[in-house]
Amino acid sequence: MVKDRYLSPFIIKDLKDKMVFVGGPRQVGKTTLCRNIIAKHFKSPSYFNWDNRGDRKAIAASAWPADAELLIFDEIHKYRQWKGLIKGEYDKLKDKYKFLVTGSARLDLYRRGGDSLQGRYHYYRLHPFTLAELEGIAFRGSVHSELPIGDGFHQKAMEALDTFGGFPEPFMKQNVRELRRWHNEKIERMF
Questions:
Q1: In whole angstroms, what is the distance from residue 34 CA to residue 7 CA?
Q2: How far is CA 82 from the centre of its chain?
Q3: Residue 50: CB partners within 8 Å, gap ≥ 6?
Q4: Shortest CA distance to 14 belongs to which of 108, 159, 120, 145?
C-alpha cells in the first residue's frame, strides 16, 4: 500500500518552474514518493537509478526517452560529477523535461558553499510520517503552532505511530514481528 505524502502537491507545483531535489533519511519513502505518487501526474515519466548498471549507462550517454515529460534521478549523488551533469542537462533541456532528483540525507550536504546549481532547484527534505500527516491535518505555516487535536483526532493513529514509528515500511505493515526485523536489520547495518 502506498500513502500519498504531504510534500506531493508542493513538488508537483514546483516542477513547473525548476528542478526539485528530494532528500531525507534512508527508507523514509523518497523513491516511492517520486516513482509512485509524483510520476502519476506526468505522462511518460522516466526513472533512472544510479545503482543500476543499465541506468548508469543511460545517464552517462544522456539517453533520455524522447516522449518523457519527467526525468527522475535516484541516488545520482553517488556519481562524483553529478552536479555538473545535472546542471548541463537541465540548462540544455529544461524546456523539454522536468527534473526530479532524489537521494539520501547526504544530498543536503551538497547545497552548501559554491553551489553551481543555485537558482535552478527547490530542495525538499522528506521526514517520517507524523501524526498531522497521518490525520490529514494541513500545515498552517508556523512550526511553533500547536497541533490541532480536537474532534477529528484519532487515538488509533497516535497509538500506531507510537508503536511502529514514522518510517513507512514498518508503519504501513503494522506488524510487530516485521517491526523487530526492520529494527534489527537497521542496527546490523549501522554497526
A1: 10
A2: 18
A3: 56, 59, 73, 74, 75, 76, 77, 78, 79, 82
A4: 120
Q: State how far Cα 85 lies from the chain centre.
A: 20
Helix (H, G, I), strand (E, B) or coil at 160: helix
The region of weakest confidence among 2-11, 15-24, 101-110 is: 101-110
Q: What is the mean pLDDT of residues 160-165?
A: 74
Is the predicted pLDDT of residue 38 greater than 90, yes or no?
A: no
Q: Specify the number of domains making up the chain.
A: 2
* Same domain membership, residue 112 and residue 49: yes
Residue 92, in any domain of the structure: yes
Alpha-carbon span 28 to 12, nearest angstrom: 19
Q: Do 88 and 178 belong together in one domain?
A: no
Ramachandran angles phi, psi of 151, nearest 5°: -60, -30
Burial of 57 (0-12, 13-18, 19+ CB in 10 A): exposed
120 with 185, same domain: the answer is no
Residue 133 lies in a domain: no
Name the residue range of residue 163's domain: 146-190
Q: Which helix (H) or strand (E) holds 80?
A: none
**This prediction's pTM:** 0.75
Question: Rounded to 10 degrees, what is the CA torsion of 35, 71, 73, 109?
Answer: -110
